[in-house]
Amino acid sequence: QALEPKNAESMAVVWGDLPSMETIKNQTVDIIADLDINAAGVFKYPITGLPDWTPLAQQVKNSGAGSFHYVGEPTNLGNLVKSLREQGWDGNPIAETNIYDPGYVEAAGAENATGTIIRSVFHPFEEADQWPATKQYMDIVNDNVDGAKIAILGMQSFSAWLLFATAANDCAAD
Questions:
Q1: DSSP string across 14-28
Q2: Cα separation of 125 and 140, whole Å?
């Protein structure tokens, strides 16, 4: 709400039709209600994507949503955002960490992806020179995996692995 107060007044939820994503969708709907934000609508799409995102984009735009929370994968969000921008929607997509992926920007186009808010506890790869742990992750992956794809989900896995390795070492030392 603090980043884009006007666009936060009315929020929709767009989600892929998988049971695991339905749980996240339901939690998001509850949070929107708790924050006393106008719920503009809840829109479902097939998780495999749509051949034409225009009808869904029109539904989101016509709902009056200034923003929407997205539950799904990066390429589908990119396709939806591209269609929304083509229709003149200037709101803010809001997504979780998994959307921080080059596939999102490739599908949406950089100019269309601008304004997307991605919730993450990790520092952006573009700022690795300012964050030693992020740079170290990128260097380790690049030095050890041919053709590696640097991705936030990989960094999450790496972080969990380091936590396990640290705990195992501590146990072995005792």
A1: EEES-HHHHHHHHHH
A2: 14
Distance CA 49, CA 56 (A): 11
Q: Which residues contact 125 (CB under 8 A, 6 or more apart)?
A: 134, 138, 150
Q: Which of 122, 116, 92, 89 is nearest to 104 (CA)?
A: 116
Provide the terminal-to-terminal Cα distance of the chain, rounded to the nearest Å.
48
The token pair at 47 is 């998780």
Residues 99 and 78: their CA atoms lie apart, in Å, by 9
- Residue 162 pLDDT level (bands cut at 50, 70, 90): confident
Q: Quick one: three-class SS letters along 123-153?
A: CCHHHHHHCHHHHHHHHHHHHHCCCCCCCHH
Among residues 99, 37, 24, which one has the least CA distance to residue 63? 37
Q: Is 4 helix (H, G, I), strand (E, B) or coil?
A: coil
Reported as a single tens digit per residue, the pLDDT across 14-36 is 999 999 999 999 999 999 999 88
Tell how strand 67-71 and strand 117-118 pair up: unpaired
Residue closest to 57 by CA, chosen among 75, 48, 46, 45: 45
Residues facing 67 on adjacent strands: 11, 92
